[in-house]
Structure formats: structure tokens, C-alpha cells
Design brief:
6-stranded mixed β-sheet, 6-stranded parallel β-sheet, homodimer, alpha/beta, 434 Repressor (Amino-terminal Domain), Rossmann fold, DNA-binding
Chain lengths: ~350, ~350
DNA sequence: TTGTATGCGTTATCAG
DNA sequence: CTGATAACGCATACAA
């Protein structure tokens, strides 16, 4: 039905040639075209509702103004999917299209996705991971600009949450609120393996440093690698049995959720009897009462920043080796109601 | 670096012409090419790692083998983002690319997204909504195949959860487990407005019909349009004060979450003292203990089905007016531990 | 059976 | 200042 409007159409209408029209519409520097001509061309283009055919342009220029986003399982994840939105927003702001694919952690699907995108001339790729860990990428993207979000791949620039700083901030917040006797749930040796997590080590290390800086050490610690509510149930039970602390730091919100359950079962009030400070800011954290004070994983910002970095790289304004191999994004402290001020 | 391999390259290597190579690789019907030739062409193509340039092909054929997915705020949503995965999976299975954009409910961004995709020659569009409601679409997509997921737009085919059946199933399940004295939380007149929700009316209607079929009516009802935990807190308090029911149907999981909170506070056991049956199957439903038995919103399937329908429509194998205006997708009952068998 | 010529809509080069 | 002309990589009608 709606036949496409092409350069030829507007050339015919104005009497100028297609190349002149093209020059006007792209206002190429160097060749100055009389304002009268330009004016007329622009008017007709506007009137006809001309929009350049990006695939034809891409074929000619070799640049598609499209980027690819490949993730392992970000869309299926509760909160990490915000990184998609961040990328989409940034891309739209630059009038770029976003091609998307998800691999579900299958190497074959990953190679598929890369090939599919390459044959479509994308200008660059963002690789996003659900959990920040070190992974490998196949060779198929030689020469293509690549940015990793929430993960680490050898040889590529990564955008990551600033977990160390967050650990520091968390402890400082507790200390500033008068807490001295603090417990921690969630330490586990397995998390130190970069293939398991590239960032949890930093989170813990920030927490440890924060404690040391304040001249404190944990009154009680519950180890555990499976950061689910069950760990919170078990951990809180152990800690409450001892009963000599004022605050618990939980390694993530799901553990905190378990702690809440035990507190409620024992008739303990959060934060009056016990403060809880957590990490991640899953939706969960704002469902429970009182809402959990937690260090937010800034997925939206990370996606946005990754896309902007990629655009710079494509434009040649920035080169990964210019700067640090990682861009760290601040994890804001979301202050809610689970931490008491002991004044 | 990696120069692209083109038809010309492989033509040069084999000695045949580009058109012959093209015919072989697309094994065009009609023109039979000797197996010897075909064999050789395929071998060289394989060896060189040839992959056709989809943008060039698209320019020539007018079909891009790419589809667009435009949503309001699906990626930012806890559970609806699974529909993205469904679309991605189906697209990959058909070797189609997916272009994605999100509007955040701004009409301007919607028109932007449509234009951006049209100039990229997508073959069709899927429009996805976070909450199933009736919306309008601008005129800009004349002639383009369109499927709506989790929403309703006049004149287009929609893929929706089968809420009526789910309501029926929910009540039947309760009745089959011996429940007769049942309460309900979540009815609200405002939800009957199709612009607010296209499906909640059916959910409620299914529930009502199920009750009527069993010769039952609700012992107690708590109305409320804001389906958040607070409504569960308030509703459960009211209901528990009366204390003469065996089961509560909550209109969604967040309300159920509130009910859980009150039950725990009052020392009531779920499901021993009180059964809970819910809707949606948010992540939340599997976090609480006991895990909630709930009617799942089948987002993954809906995305997949929408994409498959779109492909059929593009291929001309199916025309929206051929069949019903809606494709209803079954909402499975996820049986967990919140409903007691009164057998 | 295979090759040649042409066009898809742009942009870039180079004359005029 | 502007307009032919070629080329991007592919598919196809037609000629050989």
C-alpha cells in the first residue's frame, strides 16, 4: 500500500537530482549548496514524509547505525532486565536500532546470534550477563567494537557495579547509625572463583575493609554460597540464638527475606530489635515490611553507560585501551526502613 | 580485518558466475543445476565461510527476515519480560532477527520506534504490553503485519492469557480439594474498563462462574483495585476476624503475599488453618513458605506464539481475519503447597 | 545449464 | 554549485 518515498521521488518533485537531494538532507560539509535549493528540498522532503532507507544506506556506507545486544538470560531474570531498558534508551537517543538475541548459555546459540548480527552489519555488540562472572567469547567478532555489561571477558572493556565501594558504604552507613555489634550472612569460598563471580569478592572485600576501618570485626558470621531465603532462615536462627548483635548484613535481598521470616516467627521487630542491611535491591526488598534498606545494583545505568561507551568506540572517540579496562558504576544506597538509628 | 566473503568471491574461486552461485545457495526451484556444480559451489562456500549479506538481500527482495518488538515497559517489569524471551526463541528458530524498542508509554517514542523499524524494512511488528489493556496504535504501520501480545488494539489480532478458563480452573481446584467456604480479595469496578484491563474482568468472571457452577458463593469478599501487599494485609485481617472460611482466593500474588504476612503475624498456618490460591506466578510466589499455588501468566508461551503467528502472517499462510481475533493461551495451575486437601 | 544485465536506495567521486 | 555515474551485495528476468 504506502509506497515508500525515495530520494528519486523527491528529486523528481524538486527538479534536482538525487545526489543533490542526498547532499542537502545529509548537509555534507565541504559542498555548500545555496540556501534556496536546500530550503526547497527540505520542504518537499518534509511534505512527502521522506525517511531514508537505512538498509540501503547501510549497504552503501558500511555502517548500519544498529547495535546488537546479546545476553545469556537477562530477559528471564527478575531485575537484570532493566539493563535492556538502559541500552534501548541510549540507543534511541542516538537514533540507533537494537538487535537482540539471547543464548540461554548455549555456545551454539551464541555463535548463531553473532553470525546473524554480523550478516546484518551491526556497528557493535554489547554482551550482557545475568550474573557478573568471567566468560569467553568465540572468535567470530574480530574487529567489531564490543562492550561487556555485568561480566568480564578477556580483552574487552566491561561495565560493572562498583561492589567494593558498595561494601564500604554499607558498613559505613551501619556504623554511622551507631551499630557496632554486626553479623554477616553469605560468605563463601566458591564465590572467589572469577568464573563463578567477578564481583562478589569485591563486595565482601569492601565490607571487610569497612569493618576493619571502623576497628570492628563481625560478632557472628554464617557462611553459605546459595543465596536463597533458606540461607536467611538458617543464618538468622543461628544468629538470634546468640542474641548479642544489633545489625545483620545479608549478602543479598533473598537472604534478607529469610531473615525477615525468622524475625517474624520469633516475634522480633525489624528494625527495633534487629537492623538488616542488604544488597541488590530486588523488587522483593520493597515488598516486605519494613522495606529493606539495600545497596542497589544499577542495571539501568549500566546498560545506558555501556551503550554510550559503545557509541563512542564506534565513532572512534574512545578506545578501550585508552582508559581502565572496567567502568565501575556506583551502587546507590536505597535508604528504607530496616536499619535503626542507635544515635 | 576479516574482509567479508561475498558471492563474487566464491564465484571467482569456483569459476562460475555470481548468479549461478546464488541459485545454488538458494537452491531455487525450477532451474536444475548439475549436482557436480552445486557440490563444488557449496564446498567452496563452506570453506570460505560464506554468509549472505542480509541487508543487501533485503534491499533486493524487499524482505528483511527481521521483526520488530515494541513494548511499553515490558523489560522493566518483574515477570512480563519472559515474553521477550519467547519472541527471541521463536525468531531464532526461524533465523529471523529481532529489533527491539520500548516506549515507556510516550506516544512520541512509539512513533519514533515504528519509523525507525520501518526504515529498516522489518517484515512485521509485535506490540507487547506490560498489563493487558486496550490501547491505540498510530496509523504509521499501514500494510505491515502486526500482532499484539498481552493487550488489545482495534483491528489487530491479539495473543492473550486465557483468564476466564483460569478463573474456572482455580475454583474447580479448590472445590476438588474439599473447600466450600471461600473468600475472595481483589474485586474492583475500575478493572472492568477495557482501557484499564482487557482481561481482569474475565478472570473474575471465570471465578464467579466456577463458584456458581459448584453451587457456591463467597462467604466474604474484600474489594480493592490496587493489587499490592497492602490490600492483602487489610483483606486478610478482615477475613481472619470472621474466621469461618477454609480458603482465600487472591486476585494476584502480591495480595497473597500480604495475606501471608497477616497469617504469620497471627500464628495461623498456611495451609493447615487457611488455604491460599492465587494468580500470576510472580517470582514472589516461590519465595514465600509455603510456596503459593497459583495460576501462571504464560508470558514465555505468549511471546513464542505471537512470533509464530506473525511469521505465518508474513508468509501469507495465515490471515488474521481467518480465525478468531484473539488467541488464548492456557494459564497452567502451578501446584505448590498453599492449598490443603480437605478430602 | 549458465552467464549477462539490471535494479533495490543510498552515497561518493568526479566532471561539467 | 550540481548532475551523471558507479558501487555496495544480492537476486532475478532474460539471453545465450
Amino acid at each position: 500500500m504506502n509506497k515508500r518515498i525515495t530520494l528519486a521521488d523527491i528529486a523528481a518533485r524538486t527538479g534536482f537530482s538525487a545526489s543533490t537531494v542526498s547532499m542537502v538532507l545529509n548537509n555534507r560539509p565541504g559542498s555548500r549548496i545555496p540556501e534556496a535549493t536546500a530550503e526547497r528540498v527540505r520542504a518537499i522532503a518534509e511534505e512527502l514524509g521522506y525517511a531514508p532507507d537505512r538498509t540501503a544506506r547501510g549497504l552503501r556506507t558500511g555502517r548500519s547505525e544498529a547495535l546488537g545486544f546479546i545476553s545469556d538470560e537477562v530477559t528471564i531474570t527478575r531485575y537484570a532486565s532493566a539493563m535492556v531498558r538502559g541500552i534501548l534508551d541510549a540507543a534511541e537517543a542516538c537514533n540507533h536500532a537494537v538487535l537482540m538475541a539471547e543464548t540461554d548459555n548455549h555456545p551454539r546459540r551464541l555463535e548463531n546470534a553473532i553470525r546473524l548480527m554480523r550478516t546484518r552489519h551491526i556497528d557493535g555488540i554489547i554482551v550482557g550477563l545475568m550474573r557478573a562472572r568471567q566468560v569467553d567469547l568465540p572468535a567470530g567478532l574480530g574487529g567489531l567494537p564490543v562492550i561487556i555489561v555485568n561480566g568480564k571477558v578477556d580483552g574487552y572493556h566491561a561495565v560493572l557495579p562498583d561492589e567494593y565501594q558498595a561494601g564500604l558504604d554499607a558498613v559505613n552507613y551501619l556504623v554511622a547509625h551507631g551499630h557496632r555489634r554486626i553479623a554477616f550472612i553469605g560468605r563463601a569460598a566458591v564465590h572467589l572463583d572469577p568464573r563463578v563471580s567477578w564481583t562478589i569478592g569485591r563486595r565482601i572485600s569492601g565490607i571487610d575493609t569497612g569493618m576493619a576501618n571502623a576497628g570492628l570485626s563481625f560478632v557472628h558470621e554464617v557462611e553459605g554460597s546459595d543465596w536463597e531465603p533458606e540461607l536467611g532462615y538458617r543464618g538468622a536462627a543461628e544468629i538470634f540464638d546468640r542474641g548479642d548483635i544489633t545489625a545483620i548484613i545479608t549478602a543479598n535481598d533473598r537472604i534478607a527475606f529469610g531473615v525477615y521470616g525468622v524475625a517474624q516467627a520469633r516475634g522480633l521487630s525489624i528494625p527495633d530489635d534487629m537492623s538488616v542491611l542488604s544488597f541488590d535491591d530486588e523488587q522483593l526488598a520493597s515488598y516486605v515490611r519494613p522495606q529493606v534498606t539495600t545497596m542497589r545494583l544499577p542495571y539501568l545505568d549500566m546498560g545506558q553507560i555501556a551503550a554510550e561507551l559503545l557509541f563512542k568506540q564506534i565513532a572512534g572517540e574512545w578506545c578501550p585501551t585508552d582508559s581502565a579496562e572496567e567502568t565501575l558504576v556506583r551502587m546507590p544506597l536505597v535508604e528504607r526502613s530496616s536499619v535503626a538509628d542507635l544515635g
